[in-house]
Amino acid sequence: MHPATHRSLRELVASAHALSHRWSRLAELLPDARADLRMGVDAAGGMVAALGELAGTRDVAIGGAASGLGATVGEGMARIGEPFLERNQALRTAVLDVHHLTVLLHYVERLARAQDDDELAASCHHWAHELVAVEGRVREAAIAEGDEPDRAVQPVDASAAGRVAHRVAVGVGSAGEWMDRRIG
Description:
Blueprint: H1 3-29, H2 34-57, H3 64-81, H4 87-114, H5 118-144, H6 149-152, H7 160-183
């Protein structure tokens, strides 16, 4: 297997685990987007299982370290980064999470075709289309936040700590704007 394919399969697993952890947390915080976010978590899990089997038959280890790194990054984003975000920001960045996976799947599909690995190419094609559907649904949810501007800027995490973190983020943004006005 070409090193580009090998590394990309590992990246797919890490990125899928990151998405799963982050989106599971977002599903708790955003009940109106829960079904779409859970659909993404389920699809990412199915993709990891399918690609794990294919990687195993190709002597590519995509378990522990790749999974652990992805889980750590996803958990860190969910627990540390999310409280600073507004609802609209959280959903828009969730779209970027899944978009990264879909682009990477299409890339690995091309790599597999260049290596005459039809089985891997077909699997990547399938999972890319599964995740593109999820991406569309979450993108629509993110865009729909614009229909209710007051709701869109609410903190994604409504807990006391989340509200404080959100106020800090707004304060930092306001300070940056104040500086820009003085400098510009």
